[in-house]
Amino acid sequence: MKTYSERTHEKMKEVLMDPSAPGPEVHYHMIRGGNAQSNITTNITVWEAGTVGGEYIKSYGHYHVGDLEETYTILQGEGIIILQSPIADESVESFQAIKVKAGDRIHIPKHTGHLAINIGKDWLVTSDDSPASLADHADYEPFKKMKGAAYYVVEKSGKPELVKNPLYKTVTHLSAPADLRA
User: Fold this and answer.
1) Which of 1, 2, 19 is nearest to 10 (CA)?
2) With 27 labelled, which of 15, 79, 96, 122 sits at a CA distance of 20 to 30 A?
3) pLDDT tens across 63-98, in order?
4) Start-end of H helices in the chain
5) HSE-up (13 A, CA, CB side) for residue 10
6) What phi, psi does 135 have (nearest 5°)?
7) How many Å is the maximal CA-CA distance in the chain?
8) How far apart are CA 130 and CA 9, in angstroms?
9) Phi, psi (5° rounding) for residue 178?
10) In order of start, what are the domains of the chain with their CATH numbers?
């Protein structure tokens, strides 16, 4: 298992609202723990600050394979954690946007798609307890197929705002702070 990997702009084009927009060479960096020679079981992820075509820098998004749960701890910065129910027939039952800052902990329930977004001026840094040492623990295909989550988070007048991804037919339940809704 590689302990370091990065998500490049070229790869992120698959889930961006505007894949033609220029962006940083690397959107985020992942340092994976849990190797055979170590007792470390946490992972560290660092997101660059900024936007791509108005959309804040984010992670790709994935669902865990099996009944895995996860906890994110925000170490630095401010962001939004997206949680959404599994995609069925291009729809989701629930979509949740949670604002986070340093010191917050967010539980990711099993079978819940998730991603993190940096809405701050500096790096967003998290630790998590995802079992990255397990081969094929994450399924990225649902987010790739739908070109992202059910909503994008974009910068409008210097603040984050949700913009619906038009590829999703319906989102039955939306939970987000009022200041994120258009």
Assistant:
1) 19
2) 96
3) 988 888 999 999 999 999 999 998 899 999 999 999
4) 9-12, 141-145
5) 1
6) -65, 140
7) 49
8) 23
9) -60, -35
10) 4-180 (2.60.120.10)
